[in-house]
Amino acid sequence: MIPTASIPATPLRNRRAWAALLVGVLLVGVGLGMMIDGGFGVAPPDAMFTGLSRATGLTVGTILFLASILMVLMAWALGIKPAIGTLISFVGIALVVDITRLILAAVDVASWALAADLALWFVGLVFFCAGIMGIFASDLGTSPNDQVVRAIALCTGRSLGFGRLTVDAIALLSAI
Question: With a threshold of 0.90, does the pTM exceed it?
Answer without folding.
Answer: no
